[in-house]
Each structure stands twice: as structure tokens, then as C-alpha cells.
Amino acid sequence: xxxxxxxxxxxxxxxxxxxxxxxxxxxxxxxxxxxxxxxxxxxxxxxxxxxxxxxxxxxxxxxxxxxxxxxxxxxxxxxxxxxxxxxxxxxxxxxxxxxxxxxxxxxxxxxxxxxxxxxxxxxxxxxxxxxxxxxxxxxxxxxxxxxxxxxxxxxxxxxxxxxxxxxxxxxxxxxxxxxxxxxxxxxxxxxxxxxxxxxxxxxxxxxxxxxxxxxxxxxxxxxxxxxxxxxxxxxxxxxxxxxxxxxxxxxxxxxxxxxxxxxxxxxxxxxxxxxxxxxxxxxxxxxxxxxxxxxxxxxxxxxxxxxxxxxxxxxxxxxxxxxxxxxxxxxxxxx
Length: 335
Prior knowledge:
Residues 1-14 form a propeptide. With 335 residues, the protein is α/β, with parallel strands linked by helices. It folds into 2 domains: 10-241 and 302-325, HybD-like (Rossmann fold, 3-Layer(aba) Sandwich); 245-291, no CATH class. It has 12 helices and 9 strands. Strands 1, 2, 3, 4, 5, 6, 7, 8 and 9 form a 9-stranded mixed beta sheet that branches.
């Protein structure tokens, strides 16, 4: 397979799974050297384990070497409480695997960082998760002899965004980490996707840290082990998609509709029928960018979706971080 440069495309998606899919499509559908993935399905929940093993794989899909787990649940849009509880349980199980892999023991101290702007709904995921996680560090500091077994020291902060504080989120977190000395940092942020179907229905866990603003093409100093000196696990949910992606998807739907009903759509679409998805998307971006119309778009139901997905993540974190939390009913431990 010819090695591909995904740099021109990775601004459109933060999901490693989507980057892999795009690379496979551009490369003719064959396996990508340096990338190992496994997918399983459990009653409406699709889980993909993706391991970027080396620099070749990293360059091929434009993602950092590391492990990524993607949990896709299209039916989350139906706001089914039972399904949400099952997703939280699955999330907790896979997140525990990440903790075990990096050697985070039962007595390790955890700092949860909710990135994003609480004043902008699609970007409020991190702060909403922080509101609902179970924080316990103050009990360990003030009354350690009264803390029941099965809990660990967890602290949480929502540092805001550069436009509000005038300070990079990474600088705020670095200062807090130097003072409180956590053993691991969990960073939560809203992401960008290339697929409308994955917006608000997908959770990505990664052991490579996080870069605030990367989903909207605004790459700044990140929260990574190289910068902070301790492991950083990233949790993200795509809440926005580019207008160019929507236009491209609409063109594809129109082509499929015309082909299904007329059999031949060459007269209408001409050369577009010969273009691949990436090439057609690049053409749409070139048309929209000069006039400033490549907007970031979020569904109109974002207010309900963001609350639901934040509760799912908070519930899963509570169950995976505290043994005393019943993993079979994780939703009972958010507030």
C-alpha cells in the first residue's frame, strides 16, 4: 500500500477510527502497515480497538502513536435510559483497561480536567462531566481516617478556555498538577467528526493525551505526558462537524438517490462520479473556505445530547475509579 499523507485531512476529524477509514479509502481499501484494529458489537454498541504501532502507521492516518478505543452507539439519539446505562458500563470496563495498562493502582491519585467553554453548549462537555464526577480528594486531605474502603483520591477542574481566562489550559493544569501531584490526568474535551452519524453518539478513549482546540483546527499546547510528566488519558466526544462535510455527504446522498431511481446520473454529476470522497470533499472545502462558509455545525438537539453523554462519561468514570461504586448501576452515582 502506498503511504499516504493525511495532514491535509486530519483537521476535519479528531477520531482515529475515521482517520483510519479515510486512509483505507484513499489507499484502495487494503490494510495499513503499523495499524492494528479489532471491532466487536454488543447489542447495539460497536467497540473498535485501534493501535497505532509505529511512525509509519502514525504518518498514514495522521494520529499519534498509541491506543484508541471508540465506542459507537447510534441509538443514543433515542435517549433510552437503559441503553445509556449499558454504554456507561461498557465505557467503565474499557477505561479500567487503560488504567491497568499504564499501571494506575488503587491508591493512585487522579486529576480530572474538563476542557471546553461552559458558555457554548457543543463545547461544554468537559465542564459538565466535572460537575457530575465524584470528587474525593478533599476527604483524603481533611479526614483520611474517615474515608471508607473502595474510594481513591479524585480531584477535578474545569479550567475554561483561553478566550475567557487569557491563560492556556495546559498552563493551568500544569500548575495544578505541580501542586497536587496526581498520578494520572484524565482530560475530557469535545471533538470534531467527519460523520454526522457519529456526532453525539461516539466516545473515544486514547492514551496519547489531548490538544485543546484541535478539533476546530486551532492546535495549541496540549495536555500530554511529555508536557506534564505524568500519564494523560483523553476522553472525547464529537459534537460538531464541518459544513463542507455536510455538503459532501449531501452530494453523495443525491448521487445515490439519482442512481437508484434513474440508473444513470452521469448527465447531472459528470466528473463528480469519478471522484473519490476525499477528492470531492477537498473540492467542496476549496469552494467554501474563500467565502468563509465552512462553518462548524452541531445538531439542534445538542442541549439534550450533551447532558446525556456527559452523564454517561461521568457515570463510567465514577465506576472505574472507585471500587465502591456498583458497576452494574453506574448511573446512580452521578448527581
